[in-house]
Amino acid sequence: MSKSARKLLVGLLLLMVSGLALGSLYGDPVTGLLVAAFLALVWQVRQLLAYDRVVRTGEPDHFQRGDGIWQQLYSRYRFEHQKSEVYKRRYRDLLAEIRKSTDAMPDAAVVIDSDNRIVTSNRAAKELVGLRPKKDKGERIEDILHHRDFSKLLNDSDFSAVVDLPSPLRPGHWLNCRIVPYGVDQRLVLIRDITDRLRLNKMRRDFVANASHELRSPLTVISGYLEGLTDEDIPPDLHVPFHQMQSQARRMNQVINELLELSRVESAGQASFDDSVDVAGLMHAAAKTYRSEPGAPNIVVDADPTVRLLGNATQIESVITNFVSNAIRYTPVDGKIVMQWSAKKNAARLAVTDTGEGIPAKDLPRLTERFFRVDRGRARSDGGVGLGLAIVKHILSRHDTELQIESTPGVGSTFSCVFDQHRLDRVSQAQSDEVA
Questions:
Q1: pLDDT at 206 over 50
Q2: 3-class state of residue 51 by DSSP
Q3: Can you tell me the distance from the alpha carbon of 140 to that of 367, in angstroms, rounded to the nearest whole number?
Q4: Which H or E element spans position 415?
Q5: Residues 317-348: pLDDT tens digits?
Q6: pLDDT-above-70 percentage for the chain
Q7: pLDDT at residue number 300
């Protein structure tokens, strides 16, 4: 027990004893005891009210009041109050520094609570999306940024997801939005202007498409003349250069065709849901074509004909042929390639697995880059130009899925993608047999 507590108890005890003694002098000890108890209660209530006033107002002048344990409580409150004032000053200074830092950012930063209500925002948020820091505080952010994709992003727990939105202030401008965790029950919305990046990408796509178109015509003329010549038409010492020119002309034609296809795919929007694609049929057709090529490994097709895909048949066929051609290019003659199309309750998986050389782990993230080849010398001699998987990546993105690659050097590789339920069209076995 503390000294002040003992002092309080001793004081109360002495007061009770004094009241009892005075009451005894007048022949009524009980009344004296009750009066003493009432005085003690009044004094304690007075101290309690004074302490309550101090807590409510925070006025230090009231600290001189009280004695014993009450003075200790007042002193403790003063200490905690002063400490909290120090913390408040530090918090205000830190908040001011954070505001200065965020206001210097070119990207908009908006802090929202668990109900998507705006807590605070920086200066760029006003310039990019028209947020007013004071007036819009407490408003729901989806009431200011009206867009279906943004609302979906707010309700999504995947913090790696991003969406591109048209600017609500500047026609023709585009914004990129993402959400990250921030504080307790809060999130941070990051918004940046990507108009320049999109324009540069469009300029690049237009340049590639236009350059490919311009190159196609003279290359067609050159290829036509080369194809019209035979070994009898040229001197024997020019046979080797002649065949090399034919080979390189065919390779240039392939590069131009794939560049044009990549440009078309990049410029296309999301694949529609109007066409039902017979994925199993496309797989069997691709397997039949590649089996006839010399040196092709064993190709097995395991495809469910009762599950179809809602999308673009030409693009899905391009995905399958790219998967299979890559597998053939790196799989020996005695190897095996398995083409699979299988469905579960809420998704379907398209996969091509080979028993080829495999791909080193360091090269996996770069496989969808344009013109990237794991083995440049071999890929060039086998006809690969390094654009196939870049095309596949964009096609799958437009079918609401993404490319997945698993590979072990010396064992083989699996190229796959998973389509969600909304992209599937299930038919009966009788319907599939009828179409086949």
A1: yes
A2: helix
A3: 42
A4: strand 412-420
A5: 999 999 999 899 889 999 999 999 999 888 99
A6: 90
A7: 94
Which residues on adjacent β-strands are paired with residue 406?
414
CA–CA separation, 49 vs 221, rounded Å? 102
Question: Is the CB of residue 249 less than 8 Å from the CB of residue 226?
Answer: yes
CB 322 within 8 A of CB 436: no
Q: How far is CA 317 from CA 409, 413, 434, in A?
A: 27, 20, 21
CATH number for 276-435: choose from 3.40.50.1980, 3.30.70.1350, 3.30.565.10, 3.20.20.220: 3.30.565.10
Pairing mode of beta strands 276-277, 186-193: unpaired
Half-sphere CA count of 73, side-chain side, radius 13 A: 17
- ∠ CA 195-198-199, nearest 5°, is 85
Could you report the per-residue pLDDT of 63-111, keeping only the tens digit for each? Answer: 555 556 777 777 777 777 778 888 888 888 877 777 777 777 888 889 8
Indicate the pLDDT class of residue 430, thresholds 50, 70 and 90: very low
- DSSP assignment letter at 163: E
| CATH class of domain segment(s) 197-267 | mainly alpha
- Count CA atoms within 13 Å of residue 380 on its CB side: 7
Q: Which residues pair with 227 in a beta bridge?
A: none
Distance CA 386, CA 329 (A): 12
Three-class DSSP category at 116: coil
pTM listed for this prediction: 0.61
Amino acid at 228: G
